[in-house]
Design a protein that fits this description.
Blueprint lengths: L33 H21 L9 E6 L5 H12 L3 E5 L13 H8 L5 E6 L4 H8 L4 E6 L5 H15 L6 E5 L6 H10 L5 E5 L8 H9 L4 E4 L11 E4 L10 H7 L7 H4 L7 E3 L20 H19 L4
Parallel strand pairs: 1-2, 1-3, 3-4, 5-6, 5-8, 6-7, 8-9
Helix pairs in contact: 1-10, 2-10, 3-4, 5-6, 5-10
The protein binds N-carbamoyl-L-aspartate.
Length: 326
């Protein structure tokens, strides 16, 4: 453990334009190698220690972030705000795009080119797949994808993986069960891809109509990841090291009857967990809308609140990296 922040191996207090992630966009988990993840997690770990030790420090003093959210968010937007402010920077929050010129019909490229005049980094959440990549084509400043429709949510997957590393010590050798809405859930799309860099076994549990997209299954198949799909949790649960639960993404359904038919398909309760390993962790990107009962919260295996906190450190690490400070 580093005891003197000035000796910290990853946090130089000066601009490093040659830093590997300086000025880069974060659009998809496909950008990351295993070595990149090790680096990000080392920086995130240092951020965790620095927050515990000093709370706030001026690594990004004078830098400005824009949070540009075209979809609702509690955790992602507020954790990016907290991350920036804990590093001494500041934030332009545009969480209600209907109060901005977007409501006058301004296009995404124009909005992004406006905001980059005032900010050093743009965090974007948008309902369309590929919106962040498109915004990044127009922007000179780094764009961070905070969720593009049913596409990806790379920073969530990074914090999910960091949670696994911090909680279980390693990723290789684990059996990870992804449960719920695997079709529309962008967090599981990103997480499955990221996990494929490790020696893991993936189990998918979902209603028939919410299966993991074929494209992702095929991608992972090619990488040699053992995958199995189930419609019930009974068989896959006892061998699981991680149970990653997701919400059925109501807002993505065109047919609400279809949503009603799968809503509440899986509910994790203390009884469910009686069949799970002692060391398993239960994760959820949140918000939960009934998939995990509140009685589970007292179980030490319930990692979803800790998971949110890990998100702060990962987002601090990413901001420091793309702004040339780590
Ligand atoms: C997720 C999202 O927005 O995709 N939330 C989050 O960022 N933590 C999951 C969800 O909305 O179900």
């Amino acid at each position: 453990m580093t005891t003197n922040p000035t000796l910290s191996p990853h946090l130089p207090f000066g601009d490093r334009q040659t830093a590997p992630w300086y000025g880069k966009d974060i659009l998809s988990v496909k950008q990351f190698s295993r070595a990149d993840l090790t680096y990000i997690f080392e920086v995130a770990h240092e951020m965790r220690e620095m927050v515990a030790r000093v709370g706030t420090f001026d690594l990004l003093k004078g830098k400005i972030l824009t949070n540009l959210f075209y979809e609702p968010s509690t955790r992602t937007s507020s954790s990016f705000t907290a991350a920036m402010e804990r590093l001494g920077g500041s934030v332009i929050p545009i969480n209600e795009v209907h109060f901005s010129s977007v409501s006058k019909g301004e296009s995404l490229p124009d909005t992004v080119r406006t905001l980059e005049c005032y900010a050093d980094v743009i965090v974007l959440r948008h309902p369309e797949v590929g919106a962040s990549a498109m915004a990044a084509e127009y922007a000179r400043k780094p764009v961070i994808n905070a969720g593009d429709g049913i596409g990806e949510h790379p920073t969530q997957a990074l914090l999910d993986l960091f949670t696994i590393v911090e909680e279980l010590g390693e990723v290789d050798g684990l059996t990870v069960t992804l449960l719920g809405d695997l079709k529309y859930g962008r967090t599981v799309h990103s997480l499955a891809r990221l996990l494929s860099l490790y020696d893991v076994r993936l189990q998918y549990v979902s209603p028939e109509i919410l299966r993991m997209p074929e494209e992702i299954v095929a991608e992972l198949e090619e990488r040699g990841v053992p995958q199995a799909a189930h419609t019930e949790l009974d068989t896959p649960l006892p061998g699981s090291d991680v149970l990653y639960v997701t919400r059925v993404q109501k807002e993505r359904f065109t047919d609400l009857d279809e949503y009603e038919s799968v809503r509440g398909a899986f509910i994790i309760s203390p009884e469910t967990l009686s069949g799970a390993k002692e060391r398993m962790i239960v994760m959820h990107p949140l918000p939960r809308v009934g998939e995990i009962t509140m009685e589970v919260d007292a179980d030490p295996r319930a990692a979803y609140f800790r998971q949110m906190e890990y998100g702060l450190y990962v987002r601090m690490a990413l901001l420091a990296m793309v702004l040339g400070k780590a």
